Recover the amino acids of this structure.
């Protein structure tokens, strides 16, 4: 069957004349979806992959099987075991690289391996050329390290990432809309509190408004609150006064729905995460004030609280957009094109330790390629 989508990734490799690096290997921490599979199989031809750690809340068994058929080791731990698994597997890969005289590239989302390298395998840092990173979370992890000993090149701080952020926000709302419809609930005419007005939050707010939802925005950054006001949204400096019933979207990238927030959220509200991992909602605080639970949908658990309120937790606190197709592949792939460009930037240029976003000039190449093929 002829593929529907153009070969964005293959054309990227051709245009930049990507070459094999026989003395380098990759250690990968990634979501495992068909679009990621295409990326990994392409990069494997140029920088062989030693191990792929699949992020537990976003796996696809057919992707795992396809990678294993190529002789790639794939490990899919639970999310709770992810960090520990990265430490263990990275240690094994570094030992093999030391034995075989190879150097290593960290390829990841979320900063798991760069953190593990600096905290658990510092004796092998000389083997690591650097890291290539897709997410802001991973950049924040690198920034939080006391001293960064390797370069981290990223496509998380680019303008195309901002474009993707808007689409992620739409995907968050679309996924929740699907769940709500399956529960017999219409979004239109209801209220939502959206905490976090970054690129993804802004996209979600606009998508909610288009569905007839009355949106109130909150953010710890006053400049983002001003942005929300200028965009025509109501804003709140607190989490009270939302009105009932409410949809509460955590979109900050950190913990936004904390114990204080949970204490004032109206009865019959839904708690929805639109950020990566499961940090957005304080699940420990929610459990502490819960006297009983009941699953009311494949992706929704009702929490009966000690004070008599009932709150509905969506997708166990993980990103709701991972319950469906999330962002269309052709949107994700212009970011993957950028990621491919980071490989020769890292392996040929050998930058000093530090954090480096993809240059505007190279980002323009990715954008032009996408427009040409589309």
């Amino acid at each position: 069957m002829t593929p529907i989508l153009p070969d964005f990734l293959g054309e990227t490799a051709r245009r930049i004349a990507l070459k094999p690096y026989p003395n380098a290997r990759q250690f990968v921490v990634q979501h495992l979806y068909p679009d990621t599979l295409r990326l990994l199989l392409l990069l494997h031809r140029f920088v062989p992959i030693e191990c792929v750690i699949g992020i537990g809340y976003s796996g696809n068994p057919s992707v795992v099987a396809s990678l294993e058929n190529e002789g790639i080791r794939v490990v899919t731990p639970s999310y709770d075991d992810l960090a520990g698994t990265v430490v263990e597997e990275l240690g094994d890969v570094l030992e093999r690289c030391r034995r075989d005289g190879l150097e290593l590239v960290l390829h990841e989302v979320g900063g798991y391996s760069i953190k593990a390298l600096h905290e658990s395998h510092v004796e092998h840092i000389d083997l690591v050329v650097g890291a290539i990173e897709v997410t802001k979370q991973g950049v924040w992890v690198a920034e939080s390290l006391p001293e960064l000993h390797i370069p981290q090149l990223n496509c998380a701080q680019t303008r195309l990432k901002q474009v993707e952020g808007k689409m992620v926000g739409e995907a968050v709302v679309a996924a929740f809309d699907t769940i709500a419809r399956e529960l017999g609930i219409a979004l239109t005419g209801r209220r939502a509190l959206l905490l976090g007005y970054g690129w993804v939050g802004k996209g979600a707010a606009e998508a909610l408004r288009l569905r007839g939802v009355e949106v109130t925005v909150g953010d710890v950054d006053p400049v983002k609150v001003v942005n929300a006001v200028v965009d025509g949204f109501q804003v709140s400096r607190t989490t009270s006064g939302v009105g009932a019933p409410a949809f509460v979207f955590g979109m900050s990238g950190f913990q936004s729905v904390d114990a204080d927030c949970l204490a004032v959220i109206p009865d019959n509200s839904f708690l929805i995460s639109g950020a990566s991992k499961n940090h957005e909602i304080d699940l420990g605080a929610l459990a502490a004030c819960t006297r009983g639970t009941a699953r009311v949908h494949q992706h929704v658990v009702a929490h009966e609280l000690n004070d008599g309120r009932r709150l509905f937790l969506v997708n166990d606190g993980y990103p709701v957009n991972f319950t469906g197709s999330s962002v269309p592949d052709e949107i994700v792939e212009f970011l993957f094109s950028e990621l491919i460009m980071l490989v020769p930037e890292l392996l040929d240029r050998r930058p000093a330790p530090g954090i480096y976003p993809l240059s505007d000039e190279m980002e323009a190449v990715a954008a032009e390629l996408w427009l040409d093929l589309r």
